[in-house]
């Protein structure tokens, strides 16, 4: 199944229909295009032919298990792979990494954690969906930001917040969604902490270009929205 959203494509190979449906719904809610497969047979080929930007792969699959799928994919591609498994033994996790998996989540898991790890992997590998914004340049690999040629001295949290908002211009993102993006270690923080970071981020944007602080708009009761036209000169 796919969506019409132009966001990164995520192929989910999971033979448990309920788990697959939950992952699809959460990923689609974040703007990803999602396709589901129930078997490992042909999964590597589908990932390349679709083509996917990331593969979420269950370890125990009918026809061909996740380790064999991952090895088949790695022979042809560096596509990021997030492995799912009910196994928790260290040896199983190490086998997953040895065959080329980039990250690992054990069942039962939080769908929010899977989405956060998906986002982190796409950011690390480049999801090809960075917003093209007038005057703003973001280098996720080096956590560097420039506005109209001027370097922005952002903290890692501030950079992640700006990067997340800029990738979804015009879309209202909840504080919960921004917390996930700002803290990839899944620590528990309050919405007020995010408000404070965004206040500092706005101040730095304003210092680089008067009026640019208006690019981050608070939407009462919902969260924050990015307005790229505020960067226009």
Count the helices. How many?
8
What's the alpha carbon Rg, rounded to whole Å? 19 Å
Identify the CATH class of the largest domain. Alpha Beta
Q: What is the CATH topology classification name of the largest domain?
A: Rossmann fold
Number of domains: 2
Query: How much helicity do the residues have?
Result: 25-40%
List keywords for this structure.
233 residues; alpha/beta; Rossmann fold; Arc Repressor Mutant, subunit A; 2 domains; 3-stranded antiparallel beta sheet; elongated; disordered N terminus
Write the layout of secondary structure elements.
Elements: E1 9-13, H1 17-29, E2 33-37, H2 43-49, E3 54-58, H3 66-74, E4 81-85, H4 90-98, E5 103-106, H5 111-125, E6 136-139, E7 144-147, E8 150-152, H6 156-166, H7 175-182, H8 191-208, E9 216-219, E10 223-226
Parallel strand pairs: 1-2, 1-3, 3-4, 4-5
Antiparallel strand pairs: 6-7, 7-8, 9-10
Helix pairs in contact: 1-5, 2-3, 6-8
In short:
With 233 residues, the protein is α/β, with parallel strands linked by helices.
Describe this structure in words.
This protein has 233 residues and is of the alpha/beta class. The protein contains eight helices and ten strands. The chain folds into two domains: 9-125, Rossmann fold, CATH 3.40.50.2300; 136-231, Arc Repressor Mutant, subunit A, CATH 1.10.10. It has helices at 17-29, 43-49, 66-74, 90-98, 111-125, 156-166, 175-182, 191-208; strands at 9-13, 33-37, 54-58, 81-85, 103-106, 136-139, 144-147, 150-152, 216-219, 223-226. The strands form three sheets. The protein has a five-stranded parallel beta sheet, sandwiched between helices. The longest helix is centred in the C-terminal third of the chain and has 18 residues, at 191-208. The protein is elongated, with a radius of gyration of 19 Å.
